[in-house]
Specification:
72% helix; globular
């Protein structure tokens, strides 16, 4: 469904659906469709229909799961079409989706495996609901921040939902197993059109949708299965989460301007500018320069996914790996910004550069 929907959008989308190439966070020089998120949401509703036909006992739960994503998706989708919905309004959409998830699914975080804070979450329902809604909105925004390069957000999301599928299988949660695998299927259908040629992008609607789905799946997995550490979904999603928190701190305290203002020195944009573009700008087509950025960030996600999957029930190890990732990310960021890129990151580009010279 997602694959065919993307094909239809690419062939029939009008000018309102095209992404512009102006702005500090735009890194492509071709007309691309920016409403790819529509293919994902359509495929998810089609999945609910398939579950209904197949008489799955979790059909209604899955439908409510998808229904709760509509406010956050619509906010991003309207921005894709009109370019007039700001980040604050989209953040509100994420909070509304979080509240809707509580009313439809009766789900909220009652533990984060931190002594003291868990007591507050367990004893103050209103605080738990508000905290969960803000957390889900934050994850939605976090995945949108890392979107922008061919295959980046989609590739990260595939890893996240495959990890959810594996742990859901281990604990016997077949609702989340089926749900996570069907999301992976939709993402793969989209991925064929997005990477490496960039015919279509997730857009804000798709990125916010996937971020919310990733956060909500994590909340449900932790709430429904006490043996799963609350730090398992946190470590899985720490790359986009830490990117967001780091960017807010950098803008607010180092640059002294609004955290909501876009800029061009995110980690992924630095890799594009300092590693890919500076060495290969006249040697490869623009879409390949864009696509070569994503594998670097997939590597960052792999560093989180492997320990998360191995130690999904060990809170202390998950905490340690989360801290190690934050340190590693910060170290690499400041090395790149000071033009001292670590050799292991510069080596692939240098190899490509030498291969081009040998021709």
């Amino acid at each position: 469904m997602a694959f065919l929907a993307c094909y239809f959008l690419i062939k029939n989308a009008n000018e309102a659906c095209l992404d512009c190439n102006e702005g500090v966070q735009k890194f492509h020089q071709w007309n691309a469709i920016r409403i790819g998120g529509l293919s994902i949401i359509l495929s998810l509703f089609a999945t609910s229909g398939a579950f209904f036909i197949g008489k799955k006992d979790f059909t209604s739960l899955h439908f409510y799961f998808i229904l709760s994503t509509l406010p956050v998706f619509v906010g991003g989708f309207l921005e894709d079409l009109t370019k007039k919905v700001g980040p604050k309004q989209r953040l509100i959409g994420g909070i509304v989706s979080g509240l809707l998830a509580y009313f439809l699914l009766d789900t909220h975080l009652n533990r984060v495996d931190i002594p003291g804070f868990d007591w507050i979450l367990s004893n103050f329902l209103l605080f738990s609901i508000i905290f969960t809604s803000f957390a889900l909105a934050g994850v939605s925004n976090a995945l949108n921040i890392i979107d922008g390069f061919n295959g980046l957000a989609c590739g990260v999301s595939i890893m996240v939902f495959l990890a959810y599928s594996y742990v859901s299988y281990l604990v016997g949660d077949y609702f989340l197993l089926y749900t996570s695998l069907t999301i992976v299927g939709a993402l793969i259908g989209f991925f064929f059109w997005n990477f490496p040629f960039g015919y279509i992008f997730l857009g804000d609607g798709g990125a916010y949708l996937l971020g919310f789905l990733a956060g909500l799946t994590g909340v449900l997995l932790v709430e429904r299965n006490q043996q799963v550490s609350a730090w398992f979904p946190f470590l899985l999603l720490i790359y986009p989460i830490y990117e967001t928190l780091f960017s807010i701190a950098r803008r607010k305290f180092l640059k002294s301007y609004s955290p909501f203002e876009p800029d061009s020195i995110h980690f992924h944009t630095l890799i594009y500018r300092r590693l890919i573009k500076s060495h290969l700008v006249n040697k490869l087509p623009a879409f390949l320069l864009n696509s070569l950025t994503s594998p670097y960030l997939w590597f960052m996600q792999i560093l989180c996914t492997i320990p998360a999957v191995l130690f999904w029930d060990n809170t202390y190890l998950l905490m340690i790996f989360s801290a190690l990732f934050a340190i590693f990310y910060t170290w690499i960021y400041f090395r790149i910004i000071r033009f001292r890129t670590p050799i292991f990151m510069a080596l692939p580009v240098r190899i490509l550069e030498r291969l081009d010279k040998s021709k």
